[in-house]
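Subject: Polysaccharide biosynthesis-like protein structure
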Amino acid sequence: MSQFKDFARSVRSSYYIAQDAVIRPVARAWRRRSLIRETILGDASATGARHAAIYVHFDRDGLVHDYVLYQLRELAAAGFSVTFVTNSPSFPAESRMRVAPHCHSMLWRFNTGYDFGAYKDGIAAVGDLRELDALVLMNDSVYGPFSNLAEMLSAVDRSRADFWGIVDNWELRYHLQSFFLMFLPTALRSKAFGGFWQAMPYVDNKDWVIRNGEVGLTQALAAQGLRGAVLAPYWSVAEAMKDRLADRAIRQTASDPSHSLQRLQTILLQGRPINAMHFFWDTLITDYKCPFIKRELLQSNPTGMPIAAWRDVIRSASAYDVTMIDDHLRSLADRRD
């Protein structure tokens, strides 16, 4: 079995090398003059703002749901001047009117390069990053926040971190998950940060973007000595989960007909890194004050974890209105039918 795993890793590594050798030069050679369809001014002022946020959105019908508006309001309330970037096929007038009060500007772009293509264009629109005290990158792949963003971000120890996120991940290579990232002046003024975005091509291959975008960003900054930190470090949460799952009573009383918690316990005992936002979602919210839950978890639950109690878990930790989540999930289901 060990030899098979080594062989599989070798094949996968060779595939990635070959893929990178083809995709990156092709993507750099093929460039639209601009991926921005339209730039629209919002109602919020950015004059003198030293905290900026890039918020990336996608909806196949160009709709802006209530949970997205809530996130924009929370970013603005935390003192961030928001640039809203939508990759949607359309951006109708009603959606623009809903977004405008909470943003400095709105960019409607072609959906090329996934979130990292949108982050790149949003960063370019912000201007001189050296003038900022903080830059947040956020996308609509999570519901929340379940707590006050301003309080959470003000608690970040800037003497120990140059960039910061909610959770980290050790799959592929070490990285901070990119649904919510904050960059501080040492990172924003570094050659590593600017160089990463300048070199980042627009690639329509999700696996490539994860490896070279999400993973690559952390790796590029760390290679230049910049320090990343997170709200809930993976191995700390994994150890807490290991102890919790060792309690047989908890495993027996949990509603888990698929035995996914037993499978999780086996994975943890083997020391295999996994996605905390999927496998540890409830512990992150209740014990680590994680302010978000992944949309994918509630939409498709790819890991098969017990999630039936998600509303109760959120309500136990927050006054967040879970009907915003229910409304969005219902909208997605209606459009599938």
